[in-house]
Amino acid sequence: MNKNSTPLYEGEHIEELGNGIGLIVSKNHTFGTDALILAHFAAPKKRDIACDLGSGCGIIPFLWLRDGLCEKICAVEIQENACEQMSRSLAGNNNEKITVFNRDLKQLDSVFETGSFDLVTMNPPYKGADSGIKNDDECARIARHEVACNIDDIARCASRLLRFGGRFCICHRPERVFDAMTAMHEHGIEPKRLRFVSKRGDTQPWLVLIEGRRGGQNGLKVEKPLLVETDTGTPSSEMLLITEKYRKTVERQNTQ
Fold first, then answer.
1. What is the pLDDT of residue 96?
2. What is the overall mean pLDDT for the chain?
3. Phi, psi (5° rounding) for residue 80?
4. Alpha-carbon span 142 to 148, nearest angstrom
5. CA pair distance 195, 198, nearest whole angstrom
6. Confidence check: pLDDT of 108 > 70
7. Which of 146, 163, 189, 223 is most solvent-facing, going by the fewest CB within 10 Å?
8. Above 50 in pLDDT, residue 15?
């Protein structure tokens, strides 16, 4: 990333993702572990046409860009300031593979043709519109609560965007797994893969990953849990790989 030509505003910094790719993050538009895990779980192919809904700062598309995945990526985000931040990241990386769309996912009929994508992803708001304590900050409220869209809206949108046989990958809280899978099924996306994420082997899962296939047949594969840490509290080998620390450690060792 060309840092010299990338303007940063107060409270922003560039997160180095590797392979020369940098991403601008801010207090309002940043990313967490769940987004890293979802990007890895979705596993797009190099020729895929992909769409990331609710893209925020753009972490999922930029991770795929870093790894040379996807032929084209569309990043859809309802918040204008997040799109502007993402666009500056794109300019700094001088890459045209990703296109940013400042749109409400419920109003994409005029933007994309039906069946345009091989893969659709979303790290959605986890809390219902009327559940939990709402944050006074609008950015946080949209990201965490279903005030701009709910799981049914998301599944309906993904179903229209996907080609027949295309994949929809989402992460959610375990207590919402029934809601997510029901919404997929009702909109013609059959859940095919399910994986829980736990901090350690002796803790309850805090995240669930679901992959559905547009027009898929019945048959759900439950994969072994993803453990973030080992029993001793150190990052697991799979989590190290996902966060790229493993790759950097190997590269450093090879140069010694």
1. 87
2. 89
3. -60, -40
4. 6
5. 10
6. yes
7. 223
8. yes
